[in-house]
C-alpha cells in the first residue's frame, strides 16, 4: 500500500509540474514560457517560450499584460545597418499547424517598467490576448540569465 501511495504521489506531482509548463487556449499551446532574471539596474525584462498552433487557422497574439511590469510588448530582433536592433511588432502570428519559438536574439516579450527586479524562483502572471478576442492566462517562472 505504501508503494502505491508513493507511485500515485509521484504521478500527481509529475502531472502537476508538466501542466504548469503547458497551457492551452483557442487551439494554441504555450510551452515552457519563462522570464529571464534581471541584470542589476535593468528597468525592462524579457519573456520566452514556445507556442504551438494546433488549429487550422493562423492565430495572432496581439497583446499581453503581466503583474511583473507596467506593460508587455511583442518584439523581434532585426538586422539594421549591419547591427542587431529590437522592434515592437503589432502581433505575433503563429501559423496554422506550426510553432513559433520566442528566444533571446529573436521574437520575445518585452516587459517594460518592471515593478521589481525579476529574481530566479519568483513567478508572475501573464495574460496573452488573441485577435479573436480570446485570451490565455499563464503563471511564468523566472529562470537564470544564462541557460
TrEMBL record:
The keyword Signal applies. Keywords: Signal. Residues 1-25 form the signal peptide. The keyword Signal applies. Gene3D superfamilies: PCu(A)C copper chaperone (2.60.40.1890). This is Copper(I)-binding protein. It comes from Aliidiomarina maris.
